[in-house]
Specification:
Blueprint: E1 12-15, E2 18-22, E3 33-36, H1 39-47, H2 54-72, H3 79-91, H4 99-113, H5 119-145, E4 152-156, H6 171-180, E5 184-190, H7 197-207, E6 213-216, H8 221-229, E7 232-235, E8 239-241, E9 246-249, H9 252-262, E10 265-269, E11 275-276, H10 293-296, E12 315-318, E13 325-328, E14 331-334, H11 338-344, H12 349-352
Parallel strand pairs: 4-5, 4-7, 5-6, 7-10, 8-11, 10-13
Antiparallel strand pairs: 1-2, 2-3, 8-9, 9-12, 13-14
Helix pairs in contact: 1-2, 1-3, 2-3, 2-4, 2-5, 3-4, 4-5, 5-6, 8-9
Bound molecules: 5-S-methyl-1-O-phosphono-5-thio-D-ribulose.
């Protein structure tokens, strides 16, 4: 029987004063809002991860383009160079999630079509991107949930919920819908070091809706899959290449390898805005390195320790051969590969959409 859900999360709200962003760095302890009044402030919020998660980054960037348009078209002189520069800054905020470039390309096309004053059209487009993502999440959730047997135990990584998207979530959207249909007994969430998206955000999102969640340290996941009888690893994606390789939060590759070895299945849930048919395979996906500070700060140190080098890749690439099911709003691909990807996404999404 469907269970009642908590008040929907609305982490991105565009108003006349600017874009209000629920600051994910402070959750779950504090519900604080950042007000961005121009594109540079939106770019800074994306870089600093006040807003994060591939679809949410794309939506925030689209709203950033609206804020830039409000400023550039209100000033005397040619507006387009001012606006193009703002979009370049937004586009450079984070490199891996392709939703960012995808959303900005959509905004550019609208500006091209409404040359003299595109402000109204741009705002409608950004709101449309937001609403579409929410609807796509719900569609994907139905498709993905159908794969889960009643009473499944699932493992998820990072945060793929309402905070990371336009609402409902990608992998967590499948969890929400599957829970409401009685298909989930319990969700196991990894902490997701070093930024703790799982510990701070996923656990919070699930608990506030009464969905049973157990938090585990990242390194316990293999043990858990072996001992607890996890049937599915459910994850989102930041970029999916033309051959079905998936870039997602670092750790996903290890989890997928363990899942394959121990008999759990792997489901990736992502909207087509995360598919990048112009990138041939996972090796060509840029991987963000967020620097050592996120690692050494976790030890409580006040300064970087001497004599130690750090590498902090924020994402890794799971090869298509480890993925059992790829769920998008356009349909599901089982055992994704280049041919099946091309059949579902027959146009080069980021070139010809
Ligand atoms: O660094 P983040 O928190 O932006 O990384 C987010 C992820 O890797 C998510 O799993 C991915 O964006 C899919 S979320 C819908």
């Amino acid at each position: 029987m469907p269970r009642p859900s908590a008040r929907a999360l609305e982490p991105l709200v565009l108003g006349p004063e600017g874009l209000r962003i629920l600051d994910q760095r402070q959750l779950p302890g504090t519900e604080a809002w950042v007000l961005a009044t121009d594109a540079a402030e939106v770019a800074a919020a994306i870089r600093a991860m006040a807003v994060r998660g591939a679809p949410a980054i794309g939506i925030a960037a689209a709203y950033g383009a609206v804020l830039a348009a409000r400023i550039c078209w209100a000033e005397p002189g040619p507006a387009r160079p001012c606006w193009d520069q703002a979009l370049a800054e937004l586009g450079a905020a984070r490199p891996t999630a392709v939703n960012l470039a995808w959303a900005l390309d959509r905004m550019r096309r609208v500006a091209d079509q409404h040359g003299l004053d595109p402000r109204e059209a741009l705002e409608a487009e950004a709101r449309g991107i937001h609403a579409e993502d929410r609807a796509q999440n719900v569609a994907m959730a139905r498709l993905g949930a159908a794969y889960l047997a009643a009473g499944s135990r699932v493992l998820t990584h990072c945060n793929t919920g309402a905070l990371a998207t336009g609402g409902h979530g990608t992998a967590l959207g499948v969890v929400r819908t599957a829970w409401s249909e009685g298909r989930i007994e319990r969700v196991y969430a990894t902490e997701t070091r070093p930024w703790l998206q799982g510990a701070r955000l996923t656990a919070w999102e699930l608990a506030r809706e009464g969905i049973p969640v157990t938090l585990v340290v990242d390194s316990a996941a293999a043990h858990l899959i072996e001992r607890v009888g996890i049937s599915w690893l459910l994850v989102g994606a930041d970029r999916i290449a033309a051959n079905g390789d998936v870039a997602n939060k670092v750790g996903t590759l290890g989890l997928a390898l363990v899942a394959r070895t121990l008999g759990a299945r792997v489901m990736v849930v992502a909207p087509s805005s995360t598919v990048d048919m112009a990138t041939a395979d996972g090796a060509a996906i840029p991987i963000e390195d967020r620097g050592g500070e996120e690692i050494w700060r976790a030890t409580g140190a006040k300064a970087p320790p001497a004599g130690i080098a750090f590498t902090n890749p924020s994402f890794d690439v799971t090869p298509a051969r480890l993925i059992d099911v790829l769920v998008t709003e356009r349909g599901v691909i089982e055992a994704p590969d280049r041919t099946r990807m091309a059949a579902l996404f027959h146009t080069a999404l980021h070139e010809a959409d």
